[in-house]
Amino acid sequence: MVFWLIIGALTLVTILVLARQMLRPHDLSAPADGETGKLSSDMKVYRDQLSELDRDLERGTVTAQEADRARIEISRRLLEADKTAQAKIVPADAPAGVSRLAMALSAGAIACGAFGLYWVMGSPGYQDLGREKRIAMSQEMRESRPSQAEVEADMPPWPGPPPEAPEDYLALINNLREAVAKKPDDIRGLDLLAQHEAALGNMVAAREAMSQLLAIKGQSATADDYVRQADLMVNAAGGFISPEAEDMLKNALERDPRHQLARYYTGLMFAQNGRPDMGFRLWRGLLEEGPDTAIWWTSVRTQIGSLAAHAGVDYTPPDAAPRPTMPAAPGLPGPSADDVDAAQDMSEEDRNAMIQGMIEQLSERLATEGGTPEEWARLISVLGVVGDTERAAAIWGEAQTVFADTPDALATVRAAAEQAGVAS
Q1: Which of 29, 81, 252, 398 is placed for a possible disulfide with 226 were both Cys, Cβ 3.0 to 4.6 Å?
Q2: Based on the number of CB atoms within 10 Å of its own CB, is 133 exposed (0-12), middle (13-18) or buried (19 or more)?
């Protein structure tokens, strides 16, 4: 309301100033403009020159002949000035009705133009809030967020595994679910289940398995464990950061204040709850810290400009080009060395079948679709663990060709090949 009162007052003042000039009657006794006044002064000068010429003639400083010539020239100029002055026409006032109509039209144009311009370029209806009130509203929004369970209840149900998932792989995952159900306190089994449920897109099941894993680990849980759970919660909630996910992030940052993924999600949480200033500070630190191969890099770099604008900051992101990557974290399809260890409680036959099924799945996908350096490294590592060094060496040889133009990626795969004992 205060904003509109100020704008209305400024518009009214503008109209009144314009009305005063348009409706004021002209003084017909005054010169029409400054030029007429100037010509009258010139005529006076010429008259004074004629009088002075007569005095000079009486004093004998000029001859009669010289005086006549000067008098003719001055008189000519005086007549010309008088003629010009008489030609000036003083403008007459327009009829009162016409002036009032013109004034009304001008006032309407000013008022409508000002309102229309603000409607197009401004923010009609946006509240004029002070900093303290905005912070209070943000805190209220944050405290009134729906819980993780409420958000998940509104999400579409899991449609099932992707159509391209191999049947033998799905059978192995079912076996893993049954094994974990029989031994619900098995840390390695829960870890493996959370990983592969996420790989299948079953985020709620993955989040539940990870929650059980955190409960068993207790104080020994690491920052990575809590961030992993927060990531699963965010994915299960369609990108929304619930109070429970925020608690996971707090636990992670208490253990590692510099954890990048925890800082990324915390910045996103602030952005979702009306605190772009807090979110921008966290994301700016991440972006300038790098590296540009981090899984959050592209997301931060593409959104930080808008976040900075909402925070009232003029900020230009770094010029480093983002390179899309995939995390070398739980959720990648295919087995890890921990997967092999986690299968120790299975029978020898089931364990070998499970490991080989995962190896074949990842190997086939890398051969047909390609993958990240981390996935190639994982495959080589697991082949080394199961003793298939000949195949690991072949994969390493192929990786050297695939990543020949990307030294950083090749270094990642080389580390795994050295660990497996197949790097030359």
Answers
A1: 252
A2: exposed
pTM exceeding 0.90: no
**DSSP code string of 26-81:** P-TTS-SSHHHHHHHHHHHHHHHHHHHHHHHHHHTSS-HHHHHHHHHHHHHHHHHH
The helix (run of H) or strand (run of E) holding residue 241 is: none
pLDDT at 230 exceeding the cut of 90: yes
Long-range contacts at 319-327 (CB < 8 A, ≥ 24 apart): 320/290, 320/292, 321/292, 322/292, 322/297, 322/298, 323/292, 323/293, 323/297, 324/298, 325/293, 325/294, 325/295, 325/297, 325/372, 326/295, 326/371, 326/372, 326/374, 326/375, 327/295, 327/374
Query: Alpha-carbon distance 86 to 80, whole Å?
Result: 10
Q: Which residue has the higher pLDDT, 140 or 246?
A: 246
Distances (CA, A) of 276 to 245, 307, 315: 19, 6, 13
Rg of the chain over all Cα atoms, to the nearest angstrom: 43
Q: Is the model more confident about 41 or about 394?
A: 394
Q: Hey, what amino acid is at 212?
A: Q
Between the CA of residue 13 and those of 8, 25, 109, 122, what are the distances in Å? Answer: 9, 20, 14, 21
- Collect all residues with Cβ–Cβ distance below 8 Å to 374 and sequence separation of at least 6: 326, 327, 328, 332, 412
Q: Which of 202, 186, 214 is nearest to 346 (CA)?
A: 186
Q: Assign 213 a pLDDT band (cuts: 50, 70, 90).
A: very high
| HSE-CB for 21 with a 13 A CA cutoff | 7
Label residue 37 by pLDDT band (50, 70, 90).
Answer: very low
Burial of 126 (0-12, 13-18, 19+ CB in 10 A): exposed
C-alpha to C-alpha distance for 93 and 382, rounded to whole angstroms = 98
Tokens 């060094």 locate to: 389
The CB density around residue 82, as the number of other CB atoms within 10 Å, is 15
Please give the DSSP secondary-structure letter assigned to residue 225.
Answer: H
> Rounded to whole angstroms, how far apart are CA atoms 235 and 205?
12
Phi and psi torsions of 14, nearest 5°? -60, -45
